[in-house]
Amino acid sequence: MHILMVAAENDAIAGAKVGGVADVVRDVPQALAKQGHRIDVIIPDYGNYSKQMYSTEIGCFDVPFAGVLESVKLVEVTVALSHRKNNQQQRGEVRQLLMCHPLFSSGGLGRVYLDDPSDRPFSSDATKYALFCAAICEAIHLQFLAQPDVLHLHDWHSALIPVLSQYIERYQSLKNCRNVYTVHNLSMQGTRPFKDFESSLEAWFPALSYDGQVICDPRFPHCFNPMRAAINLCDKIHLVSPSYVAEVLLSSDSERGFFGGEGLEQDLNNAQRQKRLVGILNGCNYHPGRVRQVSFLSFLLQAKIELQQWMAKSLQLKSVHYLASERINTLLQQQQFAGPLVTSVGRLTDQKVMLLRQESGDTTVLGQLLRKLDKVDGFMVLIGSGDKTIELEFMQMMSQRDNFIFLNGYGKQIGEDLYQIGDLFLMPSSYEPCGISQMLALKAGQPCLVNNVGGLKDTIKHLENGFCFSGNSIKQQIRNLTETFEQALCLYIEAPDKWQQLRAQAKSSRFKWQHSIERYITELYQ
Fold it and tell me: Which domain holds residue 111?
């Protein structure tokens, strides 16, 4: 079977990762290739990937876009080609492909997503990914890319492909492929106006004749919703955990802290009735071999190196990096804490940390947790970036609490090290389609404290490999989060044998790709 995967991120290419989708797009093709399938993976070239890696140009061609012809280049990047015969892809192999155009790196070399103002959400990225999707359709039409048996699309960034194949005669042969669409995050739908804006469907494709009832946003009918379009037009819709499927069939209710279909629940219910909706849990790789030995001291030294690299990216020193560096210096000079190390790694969005930002007495929930942690001589390290307001709040908390380091960025090495050295991983997401961080923490033997939603519900079991809380309102969730945190600290301090058993059970938890891939083939591809 020949499968073409289209996504915005791919961790198989250094620098092309922002979130968990990059891990999936890295791992799934390799697992499918081991089953003997022929896999192509394609993302935009956001910078110099094609120059930094060994690359071969497949072709350069013109793409009709926004009333002009845009010259786009298709490139394959790989470690080595010497094992191939006549440069032909072999069965059971993954080809890593890039689409190259100046628009894809308009935000700066290597930058995947752009930060658009709140009154024009997704405007820059939407135009970028509209050209990307059009280029893929054109490449298949011109036979620079072989038409696959399965066209597997990830999130809204690739969702224009089924729209173009449905409404442009030139690309209708793509409907002969089996179109599979994976929703990694339903809250990011890529909605843009139909017309009257530079970043709009009719601006990108002036001659497009479409059915607005199928592809419009249900809450804003004058707008085009790429995610809804793909949900309605594709053969199979894949969500990345079984529990998340059950949640998105219901309407969101932010007042009580429930996040469901985000306006698309009717379309998702239709897909379920048509037996097009499938929930398959993401997996994790478990490579046998020697685990790198890490201590809190070695983590601090590596974090200091990482901070210096972040500082060097700008002429102006960011306060958050300065404060983190000073906190590390203090820790290196004084006796280390004796209590538990609480860790957290992830994007700073309200999806991930809304509960931590809520007011609680004279501080926030995060502040309350740090106070409780201080009573047992514990410490917390949080790594992440994202929403600027959240970054500011966490920086201010670092200035107020001596037992907290906020590292405002992401480094692969310090992220992996933090999984290894932590005692308790904190992931109180308000919703979580699947989640990869909790799987990586478990893999390292770190119990997780999570909200009992989505993929967290499917991977963390209370007092088996971690701690779970829930609640029918935000207020109740906050109370239960705080009480569960206290329960975890109490178990760590008062029952060390039970804690070690919990760690062992966390480490033995397994969510292997092999099982998920078998379901991909039987439930999505066939």
Answer: 2-285+514-525
